[in-house]
């Protein structure tokens, strides 16, 4: 059975989906293993009603950081949350209409436990400065960029990378929907070179934003006190 994406109410299948325009609407067809474009946000804000998967969860893990914010530190690929557009580093602003800034982990767990519906209502904010760039490989110049520790250090002129706005001091967060934070350069390169059709899509953020974001998400050692699965 198909369910539609309408305005701000988003229901997604838990088994993978194919967004196919039909009568002006995008439908979610369960069971189709294809690439999913990220659902559009309004000024970086997403207000979502996400149907839970068979395990009763939507497929994200959130972390409470020192500033009192709640950040997404893991998203299960092809999960309801992933198909809704949630990604690593996004901030969760509210859960079930209750603001989360300053809330304790115990309170978040309580909200999750009290939710007996088959869906979860979230309000989230995208990572600041994030961009999605699609680069086409040139037979002579390759993809036209280099990176060190995931940071773009060089972009060749007159290439798809340059025309699409890729530039130095951007950090690669995703390659073809796969999170590569903390991944070795040779493994990132292998993902890029293995792209079908010589086309690769990168999610990048300014290096300054990345360093702040990654340090906040990864610096806490006691996961039991800071992590919640939704």
What is the gist of this entry?
This protein has 230 residues and is α+β, with helices and mostly antiparallel strands. Helix content is 17%, strand content 35%.
What brief labels describe this structure?
2 domains, four-stranded antiparallel β-sheet, alpha+beta, 16 strands, Pdz3 Domain, disordered N terminus, 35% strand, 5 helices, 230 residues
**Which strands sit side by side, in order, in the main sheet?**
4-9-7-8
Q: Please, what is the CATH homologous superfamily of the largest domain?
A: PDZ domain
Instruction: Describe the main β-sheet briefly.
Output: 4 strands, antiparallel
SSE arrangement, N to C: EEEEEEHEEHEEEEHEEHEHE
CATH class of the largest domain: Mainly Beta
CATH second-level architecture of the largest domain: Roll
Cα end-to-end separation: 24 Å
Description:
This is PDZ domain-containing protein. The chain has 230 residues and is an alpha+beta fold. It has helices at residues 80-84, 105-114, 160-163, 185-193, 207-218, and strands spanning 3-5, 17-22, 25-30, 45-51, 60-64, 70-75, 91-95, 98-99, 119-125, 131-136, 145-148, 151-155, 170-175, 178-179, 199-206, 227-229. The strands form 5 sheets. A 4-stranded antiparallel β-sheet has the order 4-9-7-8. Strands 10-15-13-14 form a 4-stranded antiparallel β-sheet. Strands 1-3-2 form a 3-stranded antiparallel β-sheet, with no helix packed on it. A hairpin with a 2-residue loop joins strand 13 and strand 14 (178-179). The chain is elongated and about 60 Å long. The two termini are 24 Å apart. Mean pLDDT is 77; it is low at 1-37.
């Amino acid at each position: 059975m198909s369910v539609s994406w309408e305005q701000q109410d988003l229901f997604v299948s838990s088994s993978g989906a194919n967004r196919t325009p039909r009568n002006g609407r995008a439908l979610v067809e369960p069971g189709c293993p294809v690439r999913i474009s990220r659902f559009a946000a309004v000024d970086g804000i997403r207000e979502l009603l996400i149907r839970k998967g068979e395990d009763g969860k939507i497929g994200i893990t959130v972390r409470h950081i020192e500033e009192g914010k709640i950040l997404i530190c893991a998203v299960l690929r092809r999960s309801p949350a992933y198909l809704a557009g949630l990604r690593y580093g996004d901030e969760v602003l509210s859960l079930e209409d209750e603001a989360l800034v300053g809330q304790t982990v115990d309170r978040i767990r309580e909200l999750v436990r009290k939710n007996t519906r088959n869906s979860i209502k979230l309000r989230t904010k995208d990572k600041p400065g994030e961009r999605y760039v699609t680069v086409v490989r040139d037979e002579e110049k390759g993809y036209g960029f280099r990176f060190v520790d995931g940071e773009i250090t060089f972009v060749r002129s007159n290439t798809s990378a340059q025309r699409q706005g890729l530039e130095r001091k951007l950090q690669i967060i995703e390659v073809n929907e796969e999170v590569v934070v903390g991944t070795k350069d040779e493994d990132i390169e292998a993902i890029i070179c293995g792209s079908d059709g010589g086309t690769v899509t990168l999610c990048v953020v300014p290096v300054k934003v990345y360093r702040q974001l990654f340090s906040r998400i990864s610096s806490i050692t006691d996961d039991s006190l800071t992590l919640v699965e939704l």
